[in-house]
Model the fold of this input.
Amino acid sequence: MILFMLFLLLTSPQTIHAQDGNITFGAFADCQYCDCETHGTRYYRNAYEKLKSAINHFNEVKNMDFIVNLGDLIDNGFESFAPVMSLLEKSENPIFHILGNHDFSVEPQYLSEVPKQLGLDKTYYSFSEKGWKFIILDGNDISFSSADEGKVKLAETMSAQLKSEGKPNHHNWNGAISEEQLQWFDNQLRQSENQNRKVAVFCHFPLLPYESHTLWNQAEIISVIENYNCVKLWLNGHNHAGNYAFHHGVHFVNLKGMVETESENAFSVITLSDDFIEITGFGREKSQKLSISGKN
Done:
């Protein structure tokens, strides 16, 4: 029943009630749990206890509004979802899920079931709270892991084109946002600007800096963002080393991957105020205070 109520929270438009003027949320990326042998610096089994520790910490944070999973909750195998979803059921805060490329590393017959496993009716969506709009994008929309054969063929074409041009992000573990989703994103930003709302975007994949993990059609997405002044934060995972860029008033923050290292965790508590984005990092994740330029 608790998990069912959590799914309802995830799949419907929401306004979350906090007890102060700021918004505080927990964030983690690239848990990549599976019952698998360690590979290099990736300790897949150890990710279970790391996630458990993060959820326990989030439960203790006063006035926590929500938690965001930035994707790659599992590394591979549909059966890997059950243990970590059981952990997330113990969260005292609503959890918003973003789909990562590894979440689709499952048997072909389960590809279409992955969003449902995470309680998602839609793979991209938004919600609003206290002058902010939070937009969740699906960077697997066009990808090699799509259940839509047409989108897989488009992914093959896009990846091959980028490779022929010598682009660093041509890899088959990246993806792109479809024209339909891009139009939806543009409409969301237009509405936010008209409503005088600041915007935070959550996606599994980075947009900037331009590197090997970046979305295939990042130039198109940046062009949309540059048409507005409301976006203040793009938060993502995918690159386990973490990263940062600043462009057009937007802080592009890549959180570090939880699965990396044998015992050191990586997660954050993030507070949004009128003037700052304050990231309190735990384990490998560093703390930083980022200024929000301008008023919306």
User: Anything to note?
Assistant: Helices lie at 2-10, 47-60, 81-88, 114-117, 149-164, 179-194, 218-225. The longest helix spans residues 149-164. Residues 2-6+21-291 form a domain with the Purple Acid Phosphatase; chain A, domain 2 fold (CATH 3.60.21.10).
